[in-house]
Amino acid sequence: MLYNMLNFWFLFVKEYNFAKMKSVWLYLIFSIIPLTVEAHSMTAEGYYVHAFNEMSDMLAGRDTLSIKRAVFLAEWAFYEGNLDYKTDFCNEIDRITTFIQSLYEVNKLQTYKTGMQMAISSYMVSPYSGNGYTPYTYDFETFSMDKEPWERQFVSRTLKTHKGQCRSLSWLYKILANELNADAALAQAPPHTYIMYKDEDNITPEDQQALVDMVVNTINSDDIHKVEYLTSGKDMSRTSLNAFSPRLNLLGITSEMMANMPGGASSFVKALCGEASTVPIKSGSFTIILKTPDAFVTNRPATLGHEIIGHGRSLRLGYIDLQSQHILPIQVENLILRNMGIKTFRNGTDHAPLNIFIPNYMSLPSFR
C-alpha cells in the first residue's frame, strides 16, 4: 500500500436594554464565582485527574470523542488551567480550517480523492495569507536538548509560533484533518510521530516515493540515530567524544592533542570532515553538525538527511566500504534537494575524505 507522509502544523455583539443587561450581569456573577473558587482550590494533580476523567468519558462513550479536545486537555492540565479552549485553541483552528476549505475549493482539489489532505499539507508547508506567509517549520533549537521544555511539544504553542516538533506538528495535522473530514492517521515509531494517509490517487513521483520509503524505513527500524549540534569554538559533549574518539585515534589524533587544541576534538572533526560527520555506534549512528553561518553546504534538511540516512542508515544496512560512504550520502542529499525544488546539487568533489567526482551523483540510492 502506498502512503504519503509528513515528518516533518484560527464577537458576538448584541444590544440589551437596561433590564436585560441587569439580568445578564446577575447571571454572570452567579455562574463565574463558583468556577473561580473551584479553579483556585484545584491542585496541580487535580487538573490532570480532571483531564483524565474527561478523556475516559470519551473513550467509554459517555462523551463525544474529540482528538482536538483531548489534546487541549493534556496541555490545559500542564498549564494548571491557564489555557482557554475557545480563545487559545478553537478560534485559531476554526480560522485555519476555513482557509484550508477555500484553498481546497479554489484549486479544485475535489477532483482528487486525497485533495483535502493535499490542501492541509500545502497550507502547513507553503506561505499563504492564511498562515501569515509563515509556513510551519520544525523547531530545531530544542529538539535535541537534554532537558527539553515540555511546552515545546504543545499544539497551542505551534498555533502561535508556527514552530513545532513531530508530536505537535502531527497532532495539529490530525486535528485539522478531523475537522475537515479528511482521512489521515497518526503513526508512531521510537521516538517519533508522523502522519500517514493512503495515496489513493497514485500521483507520487518516483523521487518522492523513494524519499518517503527511506524516511519511513529509517524511522520504523530499531536503530537509534543521534544528532548533536555544536557551536563553533566549543568542544563536543562527553557522549559524542566517546563516539568519535576511536575514529580520531585511528588517524593518529590522541586524547592529549584533543585536550590541547582550541575547540577540542570538534576542531579536528571540522578539519577532517567539514560541516558534519557521522560514525556508527552499537545502537545505530552518532552525528555531529556544526552550528555556524556557513555550516551547511546546501541546507539544514539536506544535511540531516545526508548524515542520518545517507551515512547512518546505509551503515546499518552494511554499506560500510569507503566508496559507498562517499556515493550514497551524496545521492541521498541530492534526492532531498530535488524533492525540495532546489537546483543546487553536489557531485562528490566537496565531500571529504575522498573528494572525488561521482559519475552517477543524481541517481537514486541503491537502498530504501
SSE map:
Layout lengths: L2 E4 L11 H24 L2 H16 L7 H12 L7 H21 L8 H11 L11 E2 L16 H7 L1 E2 L1 H14 L5 E5 L2 E7 L7 H15 L3 E8 L6 H13 L4 H6 L4 H9 L2 E6 L2 E8 L8 H17 L5 H18 L29
Parallel strand pairs: 2-3, 6-8
Antiparallel strand pairs: 1-5, 4-5, 7-8
Helix pairs in contact: 2-3, 4-5, 8-13, 12-13
Give structural notes.
- With 368 residues, the protein is mainly alpha-helical.
- It has 2 domains: 3-203, no CATH class; 209-339, no CATH class.
- The protein has helices spanning 18-41, 44-59, 67-78, 86-106, 115-125, 155-161, 166-179, 206-220, 238-250, 255-260, 265-273, 300-316, 322-339, and strands at residues 3-6, 137-138, 163-164, 185-189, 192-198, 224-231, 276-281, 284-291.
- The strands form 3 sheets. It has a 3-stranded antiparallel β-sheet with strand order 1-5-4, with helices on both faces. Strands 6-8-7 form a 3-stranded mixed β-sheet, with helices on both faces. Strands 2-3 form a two-stranded parallel sheet.
- The longest helix has 24 residues, at 18-41.
- It is globular.
- Mean pLDDT is 82; it is low at 1-40.
